[in-house]
Structure formats: C-alpha cells, structure tokens
Amino acid sequence: MEVYTPLKRIKGTLKQHNVTQSGISLGGRTALHVLARGSLTAIRYRDEILRPLVRPYAGVVGPGFLLMQDNARPHVAGVCQQFLQEEGIDAMDWPARSPDLNPIEHLWDIMSRSIHQRHVVPQTVQELEDALVQVWEEIPQETIRHLIRSMPRRCREVIQTRGGHTHY
C-alpha cells in the first residue's frame, strides 16, 4: 500500500488534503481509499488500511502475496508489524534511504497530471476526492502490469548506478 497526498490550491490557499491509499498487482488493484483528515498514525494505518484493505487483498492474491511499502513511520511501527506477522502477511524489506522504485509512484504522477489537465479543476475537497477515485479507476490495468514488470529492470539500474540516479 502506498500513500498519495494531493496538494491543491483552494480559494488561493495551498492546503494538504486527505491521504489516499491503494494497492496494485499484476492481476488487479484495490479501490482507492481516502482517509479522513488528520495524520496517518500507526493505529490508523492498521485499522483503516491493513485490516480492511490489505488483509482481504492478500487473501485474494494468495500465497505469493508480498506487501511493498516504504519505511514511513506508520508502516514500520510495532503495532503494524505485529499485525502483519499475526496475519501471515509478508512485507518486502525496504532499505533506508533507497531510491523510491515502487511502481505505484508512477501511478500517482499519472493521476496528478490527469487532474491538473482537466478543464474544470476540483474546487472542494469532495470534488478532489471524487476526481481522484475517477482517475484511479480509469488507469488501464495494462499500465499497472507494465510498471510492475519493469521492476527487474529498475533494480538492475539501481545496482549498476550503485544506488545513484536512474531514469526512473
């Protein structure tokens, strides 16, 4: 599960909006989940993301499910690690200060560009949430598959550059 925090000008003031979470795999994706205002704490992550979204998605994917998440504090907090262990959900080791290769980052970019290119830009938080959900659902699954299948190439390039800049 990865986080996207859209920033938008509303009535001339730059405000940070609700956090969105979602998951992707070769065969599908979760719904885009928009969290109510407030910080994403470890407890919220466990109760609003891991338990209702990740656990059922892992069950659908099956035994090969591997959770990819970064080292954000809520992700690595003991309460979340304990939950994953109790549920038998394996998480990918994610080194500190690593380049963010998670393919979902490209999807956040696609979504951001799509919303900014609209003829009518969302003016309220609800309009932004609705636009994000619509754009998320319009992304072709083939785009997601292509990004996931690019992971070996991304990893090779990071290794070749010894963790330096890549074109990803």
From TrEMBL:
Give every Tc1-like transposase DDE domain span.
26-119
This chain belongs to the protein called Tc1-like transposase DDE domain-containing protein
Q: Name one GO molecular function term.
A: nucleic acid binding
Q: Which InterPro entries match?
A: RNaseH_sf (IPR036397), Tc1-like_DDE_dom (IPR038717)
Query: Its domain of life?
Result: Eukaryota
Q: Which residues form the signal peptide?
A: none
Question: Which Pfam families does the UniProt entry name for this protein?
Answer: DDE_3
